[in-house]
Amino acid sequence: MKKIGIKQILPLILAGIAIVFAYIGFTQLGFWHEVDGPQPGFFPFIMAIVMFLTSILSFVQSLKEVDKPKFHKDELMVIAAAAGIIAATFIIGLLPSCFVYVIVWLKVFEKTPWKSTLTVTAVIMVIVIGVFHLWLGIQFPMGIFEAMM
Fold first, then answer.
1. What is the residue-averaged pLDDT of the chain?
2. Which of 31, 40, 95, 112 could bridge to 106 as Cys pair (CB 3.0-4.6 Å)?
3. How many Å separate Cα 22 from the centre of its chain?
4. Residue 33: helix, strand or coil by DSSP?
């Protein structure tokens, strides 16, 4: 019998978190309105369902694997960057921290020229602010600026 380890426990924990997010997105934030269309809980609910399904698939796959996982520097940098975004969200807010992340990632790690970096960042800003904030009405965390407004 295969020993239960972190590779089996973590997907189950993430599946449980996904169920909580799906429940909150569907019941408290609202999913769909007959006239207005998608509500603020639409995207979180859909992403929670995707997270739940991939967590279950990851759990099933982990039962088949025999070797130990190997973590590489690049993979750990992505995890560190996500932790940095979460930490910066409490200070400067979610949107500015995500935009800073995109700029730093493109300039430092991808060595992209400034023109391409600013173009990509501007397109991402228009999509995120236009679709998520204006159209779907999602209220993003503002960090310390929230107290000023």
1. 86
2. 112
3. 14
4. strand
